[in-house]
């Protein structure tokens, strides 16, 4: 009799386990919570004045629901198009923590549900144990993440993010952290040729983070999508720490690479753009600066050893004459410039003493180590700056001079500008009137700094006087020269956002 009773009990518990295994985690929580409620004399899972204490005790120990997580998160939209494409310097490794990350992953346009950038509210009293008990996947919500779901809906929906690769040398690995609170949600990746629909999709096994998949070599361009399916009203999905380990490229014709572009009677070689995260280590000499402290030792930099490079044609050299009569320009017009819209204002980009011209760019340029790969935070209206250097041609022994028109001042003035410098050897000097009167020299490069804002040069009141042939004195305006020397192959230096302030810090223009 006892043996039969034991058998019956075992069968009951086995059936209970099988039953629980057939339901989602959300339904399990409902069963557990209702049983615990009845055990404590709580007949309803809705909070009332009669059961308030028991209700709060019960819910404080339950895993967070989808609505709970969404309600304690601050959400900002994730765009439906990339802020910067991969070809323009956009990133494929994204943690979503930096507002200026310029991630190329974006929401798929053809899905009704969208991902949002989420961050837990600082005052939400977030309970880590309640979050961790909601899923077996390890996931850290301490910083920003992508979030979809946790909102009312009539039927299950799909949310997806995607990006486009113009060209990829060798296979690439993509890793991501994923979290969901229910078992019915699926996650998969899809790959398609550029311009084609997604048909080749594969489910990702949610065993442990990070989830991973491979992207094959392509010379013609691929689209990659990460989809989360079956998101219902009780479901929520989080994505973070998207890591792309591969080498982005653009195949170029050797004839084009070695050719010169004719502009206004002058020629200028087009700079190259190398982006992505190489799957094989870059030549060690490229990374010397990034592996050692900046101590004034000059480095020799070379690109990755692969023979496939990238090239853009938007950043070109545009010499401009700056011989404008001082009576025609105020000092504000003569000196201030943001270099946006391909405009050098009144600066001559191939000034007196130049052996080569400065260039203008409306996009990020250069290799990922020493190129101009960050937007100037002090001039965010557009990506525009003046620069020297490129990845395809040696710049040794060349001198770059950008000169202002002549001007005069009625008060002492501060000339301010921003500089981008990531290599040790290039130097920028700002000279007034003469090349031996250069009160400014660029700071030492630092591997933790990109744009260095508010570089200052003091301009004294007055105008320069030059003796004429008849021994009288004629007034001439001052001139400012931006002079760069020692720019080697694969090195860049840029300036931006030239403006004027009074000595007490107020803006003059």
Automatic annotation (TrEMBL):
<dbReference type="InterPro" id="IPR013320">
    <property type="entry name" value="ConA-like_dom_sf"/>
</dbReference>
<feature type="signal peptide">
    <location>
        <begin position="1"/>
        <end position="21"/>
    </location>
</feature>
<keyword id="KW-0732">Signal</keyword>
<protein>
    <recommendedName>
        <fullName>MAM domain-containing protein</fullName>
    </recommendedName>
</protein>
């Amino acid at each position: 009799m006892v043996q039969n009773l034991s058998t019956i009990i075992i069968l009951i518990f086995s059936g209970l386990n099988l039953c629980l295994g057939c339901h989602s985690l959300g339904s399990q929580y409902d069963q557990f919570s209702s049983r615990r409620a009845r055990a404590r004399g709580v007949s309803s899972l809705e909070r009332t004045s009669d059961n308030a204490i028991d209700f709060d005790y019960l819910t404080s120990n339950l895993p967070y629901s989808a609505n709970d997580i969404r309600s304690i998160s601050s959400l900002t939209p994730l765009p439906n198009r990339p802020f910067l494409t991969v070809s323009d310097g956009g990133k494929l490794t994204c943690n979503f923590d930096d507002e200026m990350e310029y991630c190329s992953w974006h929401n798929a346009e053809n899905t009704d549900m969208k991902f949002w950038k989420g961050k837990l509210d600082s005052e939400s009293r977030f309970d880590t144990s309640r979050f961790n008990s909601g899923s077996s996947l390890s996931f850290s919500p301490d910083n920003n993440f992508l979030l979809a779901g946790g909102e009312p809906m009539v039927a299950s929906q799909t949310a997806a993010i995607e990006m486009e690769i113009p060209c990829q040398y060798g296979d690439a690995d993509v890793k991501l952290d994923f979290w969901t609170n229910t078992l019915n949600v699926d996650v998969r990746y899809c790959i398609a040729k550029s311009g084609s629909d997604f048909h080749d999709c594969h489910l990702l096994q949610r065993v442990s983070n990070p989830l991973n998949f491979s992207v094959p070599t392509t010379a013609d361009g691929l689209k990659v999508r990460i989809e989360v399916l079956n998101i219902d009203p009780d479901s929520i999905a989080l994505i973070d720490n998207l890591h792309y380990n591969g080498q982005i490229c653009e195949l170029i014709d050797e004839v084009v690479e070695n050719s010169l572009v004719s502009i206004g009677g002058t020629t200028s070689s087009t700079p190259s753009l190398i982006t992505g995260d190489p799957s094989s280590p870059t030549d060690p000499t490229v990374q010397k600066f990034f592996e050692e402290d900046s101590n004034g030792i000059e480095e020799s930099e070379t690109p990755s050893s692969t023979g496939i490079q990238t090239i853009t044609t938007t950043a070109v050299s545009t010499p401009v004459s700056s011989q404008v009569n001082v009576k025609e320009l105020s000092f504000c017009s003569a000196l201030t410039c943001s270099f946006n819209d391909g405009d050098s204002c009144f600066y001559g980009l191939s000034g007196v003493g130049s052996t080569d011209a400065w260039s203008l760019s409306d996009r990020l340029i250069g290799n990922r180590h020493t190129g101009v790969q960050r937007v100037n935070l002090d001039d965010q209206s557009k990506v525009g700056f003046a620069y020297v250097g490129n990845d395809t041609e040696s710049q040794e022994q060349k001198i770059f001079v950008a000169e202002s028109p002549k001007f005069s001042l009625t008060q002492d003035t501060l000339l301010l500008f921003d500089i981008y410098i990531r290599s040790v050897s290039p130097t920028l000097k700002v000279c007034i009137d003469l090349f031996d009167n250069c009160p400014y020299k660029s700071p030492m490069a630092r591997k933790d700094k990109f744009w260095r804002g508010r570089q200052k040069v003091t301009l004294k009141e007055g105008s320069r006087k030059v003796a004429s042939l008849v021994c009288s004195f004629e007034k001439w305006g001052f001139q400012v020269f931006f002079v760069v020397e020692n720019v080697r192959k694969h090195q860049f230096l840029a300036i931006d956002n030239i403006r004027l302030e009074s000595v007490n810090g107020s803006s003059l223009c």
